[in-house]
Amino acid sequence: MGMNHLSSNNERQPLLPPIRGHAKSPGPDTVCQWPVRGILAIRTFVVENPILICTFGLQFCTYFAKHMVEVPTIKLFEQAICNRYYFDQPIHPRVTAPDIDERLCKIPAIQNELASLTGLKFTFDALPGLLTALYYGSIADRYNAHAQNYILTAYSGSADLVDGLYLRSVVQGLYAAFYGFYSSAMLIRTCRSSSYGYLQSSSATRYMYLLAGIPHLTTLLAPPLSGLLMLIRIWLPFAVAIGALTLGLLIIIFMPESLRYHSSSPKSPLLGAADTLTGTNSGDGTTTPPEQLPRGIHYRLPVPSPENKEWWRDIIVLIQMPGLPFCYLLFFFKPLAMISKAFVYQYASYNFQWGLSQTTWLRFSQAGGSSLATVVVLPLLSSVLNRRGLHAQMLDLNVIRVSLLVAVTGFVVLQLSYHSGMLLLALFICGMSEGEEPALQGLATSLIDHAYHARLFTSVAVVEILAKLIGGPMMGRLFSIGHAKSSGVCFSVSAIILFILVVIACVQRVKR
């Protein structure tokens, strides 16, 4: 699992092609025209990178819809549980969900069930993805991402419609969660995969930072707007989410065809190692002795093609690649630890006696830290260090280490939050740790040929789904342990898991 075997042949070419035209020496006129030059540079980027721009837009719409309905869904669950609880009390006047006093719901019996239900929702979110992730990945591999995105966006809009109009019981809510899994992980992972093969340069991780910053930018808009709309009608956030997904469908329609990989013989550590076992060359006329090959690869792995549907075999070989076990470890345990953040709204609502519509503003603090890290600090840092010749894998690994350490700090402060100021500070610190995901993606993609990126991220989606499948009920149960103020046991467990990951990351090494 050590990183000392990482391939150092990941030299990357510039992502953006040079702007055509004769270079001019800088002069007074040139300096005065810098706004025009900036506009022309942006125009050139948009024209020459349509897939990247469409991916940015599709991800914005998807995350906007996801964050728009996040708190309203919890609110509907709470109303359903609260209404059922008081309906069963013979001495209490019966109330209905539309006119129920939310303050009546802030009691341990209701909040315990809500925490368990929120954790169980992660399981219902993850289960359909676990069953169909590889199938939908094969659709994108055989054709392109268009057909897959059409289906997933339709699922998302339908689930939001079911939630907003018909969620009046716990059973209906879990059904909507099962049906609407694709409103989050699968659709987001799919729309990202369209651009991974497009990013093959020293700038790749920088653009992954910008791509990862989009969901955090949406949290500056969606949750506050959702909170305001909830005060008017509970179904209005779901209507806005459906509108955002409709805009996403339009982006898919006008999006250029995503990259498809045809049968070829790309040079990669994976194929180079496998070819030697069959007595063939790796493409450069050289052959590696069998004793120097990675352990566990016992057959030739075919290049991805429409006829090759043996995804499981490919994924098993990917897991055996040097360096990738460490990446898969983080892909599993980091999302599992971060699940506890989903209980922050309920935590604040119960401990500080806030209405759930008021907790939407907590997203502002987390989004501020996340946006600062992924949109400003890390892209600039990556650009500066790249120009100074820092090894790309070393940069990614150091970002992973620092981000995990920041996340540990954030969860410790979150567990000790005795007042709202500490809670906002903790969420800001947790937001600053969001640079880990794009750095980890950049590290993983640098270890294999771009032709296997679709396989890689399909397997990553499965790993993250398993993390949700296990982590959701676990964190829900931990959250319901004790109801004294600042008794967020789940936040302490998350801090412990992340600290172990920090230790593992610190002992990894990159071979120059």
Question: What can you see in these coordinates?
Answer:
- Residues 1-12 have a biased composition (Polar residues).
- Its main location: membrane.
- It comes from Alectoria fallacina.
- With 512 residues, the chain is an all-alpha fold.
- It has one domain: Growth Hormone, Chain: A.
- It has helices spanning 28-32, 34-48, 50-68, 70-87, 108-142, 145-166, 170-179, 185-196, 204-218, 222-232, 236-254, 269-277, 311-319, 324-338, 344-351, 362-387, 392-415, 420-432, 436-445, 453-479, 489-506.
- Helix 3 runs parallel beside helix 10 (222-232), helix 8 (185-196) runs antiparallel to helix 20 (453-479) and helix 14 (324-338) packs antiparallel against helix 21 (489-506).
- The model is unreliable at 1-26, 28-32, 162-175, 177-184 and 258-309 (pLDDT under 50).
How would you sum up this structure in a few lines?
The protein has helices at 28-32, 34-48, 50-68, 70-87, 108-142, 145-166, 170-179, 185-196, 204-218, 222-232, 236-254, 269-277, 311-319, 324-338, 344-351, 362-387, 392-415, 420-432, 436-445, 453-479, 489-506. It is 66% helix and 0% strand. The radius of gyration is 24 Å and the shape is globular.
Defining key terms:
mainly alpha, 66% helix, 512 residues
Q: What order do the helices and strands follow?
A: HHHHHHHHHHHHHHHHHHHHH
Shape: globular
Largest sheet report: none
For the record, the count of structural domains works out to 1
**Unreliable residue runs:** 1-26, 28-32, 162-175, 177-184, 258-309
What is the name of the CATH topology? Answer: Growth Hormone, Chain: A
Q: Mean pLDDT, rounded to whole units? A: 68
Please give the CATH class: Mainly Alpha
> What is the fourth-level CATH superfamily?
MFS general substrate transporter like domains
Number of strands: 0
Q: Structural class, from helix and strand content?
A: mainly alpha
The number of helical elements comes to: 21
The radius of gyration is 24 Å
Architecture, CATH level 2? Up-down Bundle
How far do the termini sit from each other? 17 Å
